[in-house]
Amino acid sequence: MDKRTVYMDYNATTPLHPAVRDAMVADLDIFANASSMHEMGRRARARVEAARVSVAALIGAGTDPERIVFTSGGSESNNTVFATMFHLGRTGTRRGIVTTSIEHPCVLQAAQWLKDEGFPVTFLKVDGYGRVDMDELKSVVGPDTLLVSVMAANNEIGTIQEISEIGRIAKAAGAWFHTDATQAAGKIPVDVEDWQADYLTLSCHKIYGPKGIGALYLRKGAPLEPLIRGGHQEYGHRAGTYNNIGIFGFGAAARLAAEELAEYAHHVSALRNRLREGIVANVPKIRVNGHPVAVLPNTLNVSFPGAEGESILLYLDLAGIEASTGSACASGSLEPSHVLLATGVGPELAHGSIRFSLGRNTTEADVDYVIETLPPIIARLRAMSTVEA
Amino acid sequence: MSDAFSWLYSDVVKDHFMNPKNVFNPNEGFTFDAEGLTGNVKCGDQMLFMLKVADDVIIDVRWKTYGCASAIASTSMLSEVVKGLSLREAYNIKPDDIAKRLGGLPDNKIHCSVLGDKALRAAIDDYLTKTGREGEFRNEGVKIICTCLNISDRDIEDAVKQGAHNWETLQERTKIGTVCGGCRNAAEELLHEYVHIFAE
């Protein structure tokens, strides 16, 4: 009998949308260097530019192609922004960096790098739901602030920030505003105008496209220091031969994400709510993490006191359920999730947390299988635990 | 079962994880002569070992853990191995022996087998204390880490328990590595391990 597999780790990555796959396979032979002047090169370039327009449209950036810089992914986009701030801050009067304590590690570590280089860096606290406090933000952003960088939605708990308000505060102070929209894009509406974003990070493989391709939105007039030098590609912002197939796949994925957004949100939120209610009803003494309303439609993060996360994860895995632990224990660190700790979840609880992230392929039967499989796993681990639930 | 599982842990680990042996069950009416608790939930793992002893031989054991798959598997394996051993033999089991019997553990999970071993030793020490023989095996099974000054892993463990939580305070307390310094890497690894288990 084939083992049943239920994939609930869509915030980690997504499979290719079948239409993206078809588009990529159809275009697999468009090999010409999109910088070449000959006809084949020009044809490839036209396809690159069409993809750029689709990506811009997903985030309300209109059709101005220079606003989208293709990169290798979210980590590169985020690092490019912080590297730019390094160059600006070395010579300018504004040097303050304001970010949060729940950012993705690539932002946290880039910010830490600036701190180590002597920049004044503030890592904002968040409330119990993972949200930035607007009064605190106002109190730390001022005439010395160079950059405010706040993720639009959190990868672990799904909490969505008051991004347009944060953008307004950043811009009112004259700071550059960056938001990492890696998890938000394709799940909730993203609008660089409403958010007043100067920089916005996108990753393609989170929206049912290929890996190894991402983008950085760059508002007209916002400075950019290339991370990768050596070519005129991407309007001089990022050197390197055009990643034809990745860019084409990104274009298709962005177009579909925009078209299917409403249907997607409706589909996954109903399933996520069913999963949440099923777990709440069938597993005693749990804590649902993240904001109850301002949360990504597909994300559910739950703490199971008395049961350790990696053990839960691996029992689920043995039952064919692919989820993720809030604790990074399995990936080599013994530290519990920095996001959960920042929301005030104690280390005991943070060590026993699981993230279920649903996607466009998730079915009601998948959800019911998890609701049926999870309670005995938690009961079993709690029975052998030294810790009271 | 899942092929993907095998890269993370060996088949033996998987088997012990799925069907752990000698887990304490409150309905079973298990009575024990000694117990040992080690680890800290804040660090993500804690272990409790319970021993039934007759004539200095471990005749039965039970255990509980809040821990990851390798903590569960290595304690399950340990609980099978110690049954029938004398207290002294059990005290001298090395975490490495357990890891080997499990077909190896990932590097970052070695400490999970150390945890079971520490809980077992704490239980044996508890038994010795209860029977008026406190510290009888203290100096057994120690490994000399600093050969210049004859400082053992047990000395490092004791120093950590007494508050030496970094290299400087460990050196202050034990003078370890102050002659040739060749033991520093090994000593720091142990220090890190013991701080995780006993101090965090």
Short description:
Chain A is α/β, with parallel strands linked by helices. Chain A is 41% helix and 13% strand. Chain A has helices spanning 18-26, 39-58, 74-91, 105-116, 134-140, 163-172, 192-195, 244-282, 309-318, 338-342, 347-350, 364-383, and strands at 6-7, 68-71, 96-100, 121-124, 145-149, 176-180, 199-203, 214-218, 287-289, 299-303, 321-322, 324-325, 353-357.
Supply the key terms.
heterodimer, A: 389 residues, alpha/beta, Aspartate Aminotransferase, domain 1, Aspartate Aminotransferase, domain 2, 12 helices, 13 strands, 41% helix, 13% strand, globular, B: 200 residues, alpha+beta, Sufe protein. Chain: A, Arc Repressor Mutant, subunit A, 2 domains, 3-stranded antiparallel β-sheet, two-stranded antiparallel ribbon, 44% helix, 16% strand, disordered N terminus
Cα radius of gyration of chain A in angstroms = 21 Å
Radius of gyration of chain B: 17 Å
Largest sheet of chain B: 3 strands, antiparallel
Judging by the overall fold, what is the CATH architecture of the largest domain in chain B?
Answer: Alpha-Beta Complex
Strand adjacency order, main sheet of chain A: 2-8-7-6-5-3-4
Note the run of SSEs of chain B as H and E: HEEEHHHHEEHHH
Terminal-residue CA separation of chain B: 37 Å
Using the coordinates shown, work out and report the CATH topology of the largest domain in chain B.
Answer: Sufe protein. Chain: A
* Proportion of strand residues of chain B: 15-25%
Q: State the major sheet of chain A.
A: 7 strands, mixed
Q: Which stretches of chain A of 5+ consecutive residues score pLDDT under 50?
A: 328-332
Query: So what's the overall shape of chain B?
Result: globular
Distance between the termini of chain A: 36 Å
Q: Name the biggest interface.
A: A-B, 26 and 31 residues
